[in-house]
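agent> step 3/5: call structure_predict on target 'Peptide deformylase' (Actinomyces gaoshouyii).
agent> reason: downstream docking stage needs a structural representation; sequence fetched in step 2, passing through unchanged.
tool.input:
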Amino acid sequence: MAYRDIRIIGDPVLRTECAWITDIDDSVKSLVEDLLETVDEDGRAGLAANQIGVGLRAFSWNIDGEIGYILNPRLDELIWDEYQDGDEGCLSVPGLWFPTKRAWYARATGIDLDGKEIVVEGEALMGRCLQHECDHLEGHLYLDRLDRKNRARAMKQLREQGL
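tool.output (status=ok):
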């Protein structure tokens, strides 16, 4: 296992749609180990493979003391009856936090390292995490979901940071 460096906004891997995992080989197993080790730090809720430079559809999470992973996730249910619009941040966009509207509940279906189907679901922070990480796998950052005013503020702050 290896703790991996986080790719920062401006790195093209973050804006590239990730490939579906078709073969669970040693490199995929190693990727999962790296994702689990790298997300296991205070303040980290989720980590997509492209955030550590790997363009495959996988992510890990660290929510309420539970650490896990999913391969080839697809969001298959969002419940917008209630929504959340609290501040959201991203390891790949350091230091910025902006209100981001998300569904209150999300469910993703994917596979584990044995190729067996798994379902990961949750409300509040877990629901936000699932949506955020699946966005990463599509080549999107949470900044893309901001309203016009907050996006302008975010872009200004990024320029001021030299990003």
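agent> step 4/5: record observation. The helical segments are 26-39, 124-137, 148-160.
agent> proceeding.
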